Prior knowledge:
This protein has helices at 111-116, 118-121, 125-147, 188-196, 234-253, 266-273, 290-293, 299-302, 320-331, 361-370, 386-403, 447-450, 455-460, 485-494, 499-512, 527-534, 565-571, and strands at residues 18-31, 34-41, 44-50, 61-70, 83-94, 151-152, 170-172, 180-182, 201-209, 221-230, 263-265, 286-288, 306-312, 341-345, 351-353, 378-384, 414-418, 423-426, 431-434, 465-470, 473-480, 520-526. By secondary structure, it is α+β, with helices and mostly antiparallel strands. It has an 8-stranded mixed beta sheet with strand order 6-9-10-22-21-20-17-11, sandwiched between helices. A hairpin with a 2-residue loop joins strand 1 and strand 2. The structure holds aspartic acid.
Amino acid sequence: MYRTHTCGELRIGDAGKKVTLAGWVQRTRKFGSMTFIDLRDRYGITQLVLDSDTDLGREFVIQVCGEVVERQSKNPNLPTGDVEIKVEKVNVLNKAQTPPFTIEEVSDGGEDIRAKYRYLDLRRGPLQRALALRHRLAQEVRTYLDAQGFMEIETPYLIKSTPEGARDFVVPSRMNQGQFYALPQSPQTFKQLLMVAGYDRYFQIVRCFRDEDLRADRQPEFTQIDCEMSFVEQEDVLNTFEGMMLTMFRNALGIDIPHPIPRMSWFDAMDKYGSDKPDIRFGMEIHEISDLVKGHGFSVFDNAPYVGAICVGGAAEYTRKQLDELTEWVKRPQVGAKGLIYVRLNSDGGIKSSIDKFYTEEELEKVVRSVGAGKGDLVLCLCGDKRKTQTQLGVLRIEMGNRLGLRDPKVFAPLWVVDFPLLEWDDETSRFYAMHHPFTAPKPEHMELFYSDRKEDLEKVCANAYDFVLNGTELGGGSIRIHQADVQSRMFDVLGISREDAEYKFGFIINAFKYGAPPHGGLAFGFDRLCALFGGQETIRDFIAFPKNNQGRDVMIDSPSRIDDEQLEELNIAIKTE
Ligand code: ASP
């Protein structure tokens, strides 16, 4: 037997037992003739005492036999901190080269070196806890959905492109030369076909692939909790997955989320938070002040279709310099505002503003009151095109939330955003795009508008589409689907996809809808991000065992990489050289 106990198991009640442990040498300390070793495995760390001088390097894999004894100086930070092992025999199972960084709670290694030696980084506590949380959450998902009658069904990875708005990764076919598979951006069409096939409730914890530029914290392959249900309305879907989220919070974090989880229409989210994924851990809502500020000779406001403001609580002491810096901040291309106007309500009740030339104190007071500001608050205003300005105010709101420490990762404020527009007009390409994806159904009461040829009518069509938002992050989304062949064809028409193209790409699903497709709907959650948020972290990388870097590279296995000429030959593919 390699071991009788793990390194996280022994307690004071075990004192006197003869045990065998195995694990990695995390740290060695010498005191005279005595050597203390921290022996580590996935379960914890146990202190070993050897009364001989041994030569055990960091990360050596050893097996020790000895007696559990009470420790002289206890370590209250370790569950095993009351005991140590008086080692009688050491067996070196494997030597180790000195690792390129310290394998401790906090490592001295930079990100690149740790990525290259990911298997060493994965030995560290924070990563082990992250993956343990991921495992726990996956089990909770399975248990909950199984109890609700969902079947876990795998769908293929080598498929034909499914449009979710990103570029496909493609795989050349050797047996069908000149032809390619696409890796799924999601199993969208397959899960709908499973509904046509009568499986009623499907789920899968599944890998999805999207060849996007890797902004911020994205991965080219990521995992979704993908679900679909038949004979449901939006209400049924939301209730089912609200239950799942509440269960996960309770069982994995011991937190009871207040429920029902609030719902907000997409229009309200945009108007009040300037975002379709509002962080509602704090207020600071957007108010339109156009009527109050237009017509006073301040041409910037007079010429703007929309003027909006947020009230930043307790920020009146922002200095001139800080306000100038904030003005520069909103002018950065990432925010895109032309300038920033402030109205400050000092703690003595006096009003100071960057536009007091144009407005009387009374007029400014009306503004201040309309956004709910009190003494000591700062009102920040932006103006321009309505949605654009709201979005900019939304970004500013999040920034101020961060600066004021209002976004505590230990506080969870989930929300459903509902009633999305079905379509989004793009000026550049002069066509409509599906806001979710082309399989989302128009609301039944908007069917007439959906068949209209006027752009203004189509812009008004809404969908029973919904997003699950947690702390300003879109964690999941889905919709009630189209289940009639003619409606699906109309959707492709509206999106400017030609009949031939639709037939070539989606003939299979339009056809399937002709053979008795039940009404259905579903959603998918981003599992990596869900794990990160539950773990109180910003980045998803720590919650994926073997992630890629910002350039989409796996630096550990050094991929992507060239393939052999023979492989290219077999595929009948030539690489252009210039
Ligand atoms: N397939 C969608 C997505 O990946 C989710 C859904 O509509 O169920 O975003």
